[in-house]
Amino acid sequence: MVVKVKTWIEDDNEHLIFGGGKTQILELIDETGSISEASKRVGMNYKKAWTHIKILQEYIEDDLVIVKKGRDSGGTSLTPKAKELIAKYKLLEKEVRNFSTKRFEEIFMADGEIIHCTKENQNV
Asked: Which terminal CB of the chain, N or C, has fewer other CB atoms within 10 Å?
């Protein structure tokens, strides 16, 4: 058995600011050098990906991507702030996951006991 957790950051009005999806888009932009390619890889349209980036930039009041236009020299790269944000989020996510796993084991697997389902062959 394992415990699963999902971590995201909201504002005071419970609007999603940052989480796994935006982290993935930013990482793919960094990897591919393209917002278009990054959005394709996650199954999101280009406009929605740009909207996510713009909303995030508004909240942190800093640029996250640098867009270079041009046929031969075009592309997109991340700013140092974007890379810092990704690193901080991933650290938070890892620490939350580690804590929840440890706490799950303390609470549900104390004394080597594991929760067992008393109903056979049923998905509970």
From this structure: C
